[in-house]
Amino acid sequence: MNALPLLSVLTALPIVGAAAVLVIGAGCHLRARWTAFSFSLLSLALSLFLWCNFCSATGTMQFVERAPWLPSLGIEYHLGIDGIGLLMVLLSAILVPMAVLASSHVKERASLYFALMLLLQSGLFGAFTALNFFHWFLFWELSLIPAFFLIRLWGGPRRAAASTMFFVYTMVGSVTLLLSFLALYIATGTFDFLALAQMAQQHQLLPAVAAHFTGANYGGISGARLLLLLFWGAFLGFAVKVPIMPFHTWLPEAYAEAPSGVTMLLTGAMSKMGVYGFLRILLPIFGQQMQWMRSPLMTFAVATIVLAPFAALVQKDLKRAFAYSSINHLGYCLLAVFAIAAPFGAVADKSSALAGALLQMFNHGLTAAALFWFVALMEQRTGGLRGVNDFGGLRKPAPVFCGLMGIALFSSLGLPGLNGFVGEFLLFKGFFPLAPIASSISLIALLTTAMLLLTILQRVFTGPVSERWSSFPDLTVAERISLAPVIALMFVLGVWPQLFLGPLAATISEYVSKLM
Amino acid sequence: MNASWIVTHLWLIPVLPALAAGIAALLPQSRRITAASLAVGAMFGSLLLALCAFANVLMHLGGEESARAVVNFNWLQFGGSWLRLGWMLDPLTAVMLVMVTFVGLCIFIFSIGYMAHDANFTRFFCFLSLFAAAMLGVLISNSLLLLFICWELVGLTSYLLIGFWYQKPSAAAAAKKAFITTRIGDLGLFAGMLWLSYSAGTLLFYDNGSGAMEHTALAVLASHITAIGISAATAIALLIFCGAAGKSGQFPLHVWLPDAMEGPTPVSALIHAATMVAAGVFLVARVYPLMSFGILAGGSTTALTVVTWVGAFTALFAACIAVAQQDIKRILAYSTVSQLGYMMLGIGVGGVAVGMFHLITHAFFKALLFLGAGSVIHGCHDEQDIRSMGGLRKYMPVTFAVYGIGMLALCGFPLFFSGFWSKDAILHSASLWSVSRIPFYMGSFAALLTAFYMTRQVAQVFFGKYRGDSHHAPHESPAVMTVPLILLAAFAILLGAIGTPLWPWFTSFLHGEVATFDAAGFSEPGLVPVMLTSSCIVFLGLGLGWWLYGSKPRQTAAEPDTLEVATPWLFRVLGDRLYFDELYAATVFRLNAGLAIAADWLDRSFWNGIVQTVIASVIALSEINTTVESSGINAGFDGGCSSVSFSGRLLSHLQNGQVQRSLRAIGIALVILLLAWFAFSWSVKA
Fold this sequence. Notes:
- The complex is a heterodimer.
- Chain A is mainly alpha-helical.
- Chain A contains 20 helices and two strands.
- Chain A is globular.
- Helices cover 70% and strands 3% of the residues of chain B.
- By secondary structure, chain B is mainly alpha-helical.
- The interface between A and B is large, with 90 and 77 residues.
């Protein structure tokens, strides 16, 4: 245990940053942006400090902070991260500076915009470090509110409908999630994730729920059935967030209408909150229920994986196309979650699937955010154009732009040598033995995704360049410098994945051993 | 083989060109000389190292130790397990390394002349170096995963180079088609890799007895019978073959290769004739222990039988199509498809050595032919249609001479050309194949067609009179282009010497043995009759071609083809490439488009429709019954959930009616949910 409450500092830092942006940046968008950027860099530095001080030999929670909070309700202030949390914290810390840089076009009420962005980051940090449901839920919701306002106030022409849909969807999911955990709390008297997981592992959760909710007052529902209902309630909350088909229809709309900087955070980090929820909360606590429901869940996941890229093929808007592609990429993570819930299977396979899912979460966050960044740059250059068919031949006037976006597209496609491939390979290697049919069907999506991304590359960058785009500006030096670290990270992770998998190894072993 | 310096540093061979590519990628377009010298220098370094590796294998031939050396290392860790990769040096790797680096070097030098006027010269050498790195990586991999990684990178560079003239929409489309088509095959390879990893527990080929290509693992794979009645070994072998078929343009995945000729000609020579497309054949050779496990002398396995039939069919049908093409590069492209079919056929019926020998000889003479075609195209001011050429032997004597050598080698002209010996070994093995004689007949007929279409091409390009623009007479290419041609031509002849029945050095080398001179090689059953038959076939093809095209040369470019006059329908069907592109457009692409529209509809109309209906009905309910809002349940809920009410308060500041209505809707929905829950529970109790 550290003397300094690092995780609390990490969570509080962006809030302080938000206040600072409001004060310092009032009335000047440049000052607002640079203040926000500085604070996001501070968070990044702190996250890297955590990364460096993280003990990779152990898979248990580290940097733990624990204190009574509302003792009368049994609510503790309980923070800690294992490898999974660490990875997500790092991802959030990397994405926010990217999003701030990509939002250079925001001039109107800029201080509010960047303050909300930092508030969103605080929500992310809080949710990825909390180990108590009450605390976690506060931050889960906290991240939603700034996201809503960012879409509502700075979004595209259909922003009102998109933000409402986003909010309603997520809210319904949150409410069922909350109800489920309230029921669990009533039955067990605790909101603590680790305690609940331990009860589930020792087969005490079901008796506790059954003991509390039996009798005429509760309609005589059996404990097992009630717990299953609670599982679906919690499931809905996460399923909407990731999202998994058919709870995804808010996403293309929200991603397309949100300003691109916000889309980067939505897809890069907020969607990971859903997957993180599946891994940290749903699988450890409702593992039994997930096993029972494995077939329908896998069907959902395979549908998500296979249908999303097909839907992406006909999208005219680049952001919508990338949005569907995002759904597909996260579908693999979910398939991995459902596959490792199986009561059978080898430790090595489950470890591989889990390692793949974690890498995929990080890789997708990085790559998808980069792609939306490129779309943002296109919009800034063309006054908001981002249709697949709006361009053509851009490689001629903007070769560097094309080259770097090409790298990001190929990373998304899963080209070996770049980050996407390692995650996808480990995922498939892991769930091929655990779920052979589901993974065989999912292979189709690898092809469809390739078609999608190459079509985009072809339509936007190749062919004769029209008069209109013959002076499309290439990336400026500043843009190159800000994109370079992201692109470099794609190469580093593609060639040397051990950099990330090393610190995660103990966590993965620990996680899988608890599943067995 | 003990771990000598070259074995532990074998990774340098692909890394040198990779570094050159990396540096060239960062260079500005104006640094043309730097980029070219980096690429050529790195390739030369790789060639030297490859020769070292080759010498190292030679020194260990026939020795006590195995002729294979492997170096494995940990790559990544998932939980408690490590994933290992590795490289290896064995005779197969050594001979391929030398071939790829040598042919590559020739083509790099040729490109300096050929691409001299291109604006993206620097980028071109960057991509070429990247290709070389990936290809050499495929060759030294001792792990199916590492091989797959490099394999996909080879595919990427092929994509980049086919689409090098990206402003031509046809080039961009061809690049995409190549990537997608090969990726279809690669999905099979990927699935095979997953299965192998699961069943064998490793993806390393050789690992001191526990590798996937070693006896223990193979025995396990062969004994495991799958639900469809074939062994796991066969299933994996066939899946891997899918990948090989995609890369090597085997039927039915051949459609991308002719289109790939949209790329610059040196690219066609290096990637789409000599090296990359042969990677599929190399892969089959690499996993030959898996393909052939349990084979009896003179027999075959299911996997090898499939390889044989696919190869034989591809050899024949691509040769048919080549007869009716008019583009100098497309004729060569179909010829390449056909010859790749031969190689597969050779591996299927005769084993690794037979197929690989043809791969090596073909690499030299086909690279020669493509570069020769490049020289012709260059000399004729970017004309590619053979109808508009003619009489070039007078204008381009050097090109004519080397092209003639390449053409005779490809046709398999007896005794003096390498192609004769390598093709003959395949036909001889096919004639002895226990399963069926038909592949032998298919191969022989394809040999006849090969001689015919090459004579047709050479007669129209080099003989008769020049039919192009008479104001711009064709010119011979500069020395930087002709010298590599002459080098390749020398090898197109000399290489035959290492694979004759008299001194079967190549076969012995691949088996790790020392070759001996033995005149008894010719007394193998059926060898001499097959040689005589194939010689007759070649002469027949040459004669037929000369009779139809050489004896009365075409006078104008517009004149119909001799065959077209004789059988217009056949010529058109073959000229239209047997309508495979149209067939795929009508089936695969239409299915794909249909699925895309269906998936989009499902989203927009179906799911979204349901959601909108639910929201609308809930909102309608809330409008009617506003009192429910203040009911005990809702108030209690609001009290319990601080965050929701917090956000509610925030939202009310926004004064957005719609959101407030939605929030109200959520409240109502909750009540309904709770009511439904109780109703459900009561019904369960009752």
